[in-house]
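Encode chain A's predicted structure.
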Amino acid sequence: MKKLLCVLMASAMAVSMLAGCGGSSSSSSSAATKAAETTAAAAAGTEAKKASSGAIKIGGIGPLTGAASVYGTAVKNGEELAVKEINAKGGTQLELKFEDDEHDAEKSVNAYNSLKDWGMQILAGPVTTTPTLAVAAEAAKDNIFELTPSASAQAVIETGDNVFQICFTDPNQGVASADFIAAKKLASKIGVIYDSSDAYSSGIFAKFKAEAESKGLSLVAAESFTGDNKTDLSTQVTKCKDAGAELVFLPIYYTEATQILTYANKNGYAPKFFGCDGLDGILDVEGFDTKLAEGVMLLTPFAADSTDAKTQSFVKAYEAAYSGKPNQFAADAYDVIYSIYQAIESGKVTSDMKAADITKIMEEQFTTMKFDGLTGTGMTWDKSGAVSKEPKAVEIKNGSYAAMD
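Encoded structure for chain A:
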């Protein structure tokens, strides 16, 4: 008792001395205590809000600015729309955060790291092939499940077991394009203009060339360019014209395609033009005369003018939200989110799971389930991450896409 009394007296003297050193010490201590309590309460509130939301965090990456922004913006819109619809149902909730990569591999990796710091559990993206190849390596290392809406290079899914595609692989696009041209007897003399420096473009061309030759089509010109030399493609167009190409195959992006169509028109060259999903978005290029795209055909899994109820419901909702018609990239992105949601529900994924544990469940679900979406019915995935669905083609008529039989 004596020891306790001494301790209490010493404490009282210490407090008295502190108070005597300055009249504000007591109030400062009290203010500091209150500030600490306020900070702690705010932090606790934030954590409580996170815990109560129970949302599974999905990251999105794509070009929202720059030359490929039509693709990225469409993907962002499609993913946002799907998340909004799913959350409105109640039950499992999703939270989407989308980062701009400007179609640049380094910036895409930076976006990925930002999303990882945010707590991303599943990655829906990136959008274009070269950035996706860079990000896929990181996702494989971190064991985060990745489903890209439109990065179609075969190398994307060879990066790891956790990386999947909802779009056709480049080899499939090349083969399907040659088969369609041959089956419809669109032309016998074919010219090709492609980007030899781009994995997407060169990958499609390689398979197209082999399949076209096996189908008896004659490749009279195969003209390439690179990312460093694409400001003037007049030479490539002229060589196709001089070779007598009746159809020019364009496994390239829409930005370069507008240049080719413009130059061909100026020089009185009017072959048929046929492209792949990279041409989707050509009608939205600022400053481009869309009349020059009349008759252009492209391979795509989605046509906004399809009369099925699912497509029309999506188109209506998209136009109401974003004041414009959706393209294939928006539809693929919409399917990305809904297929992820189906796997989440079937696999009983919850928001408190670690990303690696979610990845294991998602891999199991995607390699065993069937998914009916806007871009395909009865879609399945093999263990490599490649999707199986039927390709379709559209033709630009009166400024919009019309499905081809």
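Residues 1-52 have pLDDT under 50 and may be disordered.
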